[in-house]
Amino acid sequence: MIDKKIISLNFLDGSQEERSENRTVSTVEFEPGVEDHGKSITCRAENPNVTGLFVEKSWKIDVVYPPIVSLNLGSTLSPEDIKEGDDVYFECHIRANPPWSKLVWIHDNQILAHNTSARIIWSNQSLVLQSVTRSSAGRYVCAATNALNETRSEPLHFRVKFAPVCKEDRIIVVGASRGESLDIACRVEADPPAHNFRWKFNNSGETLEVAPGRFSMEKSSGISVLKYTPTTELDYGTLSCWADNLVGTQSRPCLFQLVAAGKPFPVRNCTLANQTYTSVEVKCVPGYDGGLPQKFVLEVYHGDVDYLANSQPLYNVSNPDEPSFALAGLEASVEAGVHVAVYAVNAKGRSQPVILSEVTYRDAEKRTGKCYKLRSNI
């Protein structure tokens, strides 16, 4: 039988002991970390007088913790070599106890759903993107959840290189009169930036390369500016602009439709309808737009109609589609009627105004000399 008075009790990681007549108790306190999960802690009692005589007991440590998450681009991919059309994949590395039960992929704060038609594929802890485009670039995050919490990875900044494309995906109409000097700016987006531009001019009869000396390039901002002055009818047509970068050549050029243009013509055949003391509807017929998109403006004046040219409008409204306006809440003194001026505006300027006088009835009971209180219902 072991003499309990000479037994020592030790934990291998250090301990505190409490001794009594026939009993020794050793305790150890520590805060386990994630790295301690699955390890064992052992208590061993030895008799120093008898070599090899000991008793021991071990416990396996079970540490519970929320997911620890990290995100990486696929190990076989080079982050600096991804371009449009490539297939890529991301790997989400997760440690969790209890095990993770949910995994979510996030692109620029938007959750990505598994969608094979959109070429977005989830596979275990991997995200596959097939035939990436420039819109695939951005910040990616994977988020794992277990019974304790959700944890998100640090954002991974994903770059997709692409050949130049036009910033404005439309034909830009440029109006000019003969002899007018123009600066036409071709703006592209590209990664890496564009390092070369070229221009062509086309009319119904021929296609011509534009000499490099006639346009400038701002490579860092992706802009080329062409100086152009139409002098004859044959100088009107279509200008095309292409850019190149290290990925390739722009597949679709930026297009500029050069048209003979000037200020719009005045509106005509203006009529008044639904006139009251405080409201009126004004309708006109558009004139020629000068070769450019136009909008229509109505200005309200108060005073002698013969001096409107030197007066400031009290109120104005615009209509982008047609010269049609409905005004309500108009108040004027009897001494000065309500007059309106209607004109068209385009990129070249404004037309001559059409003046309509006394567009509201005068009310003898409202001879107060009040200023306008105006409201438009369009």
Please give the count of helices.
0
Summarize model confidence as the mean pLDDT: 85
Q: Gap between N and C termini, in Å?
A: 107 Å
Main β sheet profile: 5 strands, antiparallel
Question: What is the CATH architecture annotation of the largest domain?
Answer: Sandwich
**Helix/sheet category:** mainly beta
Keywords: Receptor
Protein name: B-cell receptor CD22
What topology emerges from the helices and strands here?
Blueprint: E1 8-11, E2 16-19, E3 24-27, E4 40-46, E5 54-60, E6 65-73, E7 88-97, E8 102-107, E9 110-112, E10 120-123, E11 126-129, E12 138-145, E13 150-152, E14 156-158, E15 162-166, E16 172-176, E17 182-191, E18 196-202, E19 207-209, E20 215-218, E21 223-228, E22 238-244, E23 254-260, E24 268-273, E25 280-285, E26 295-302, E27 315-319, E28 324-328, E29 338-346, E30 349-350, E31 354-356, E32 375-376
Write up what this structure looks like.
It comes from Cyphomyrmex costatus. Keywords: Receptor. The structure is a single chain. The chain is elongated. The protein has 378 residues and is an all-beta fold. The chain has strands at residues 8-11, 16-19, 24-27, 40-46, 54-60, 65-73, 88-97, 102-107, 110-112, 120-123, 126-129, 138-145, 150-152, 156-158, 162-166, 172-176, 182-191, 196-202, 207-209, 215-218, 223-228, 238-244, 254-260, 268-273, 280-285, 295-302, 315-319, 324-328, 338-346, 349-350, 354-356, 375-376. Mean pLDDT is 85; it is low at 1-12 and 364-378. It is built from no helices and 32 strands. Helix content is 0%, strand content 47%. The strands form eight sheets. Strands 8, 9, 12, 13 and 14 form a five-stranded antiparallel β-sheet that branches.
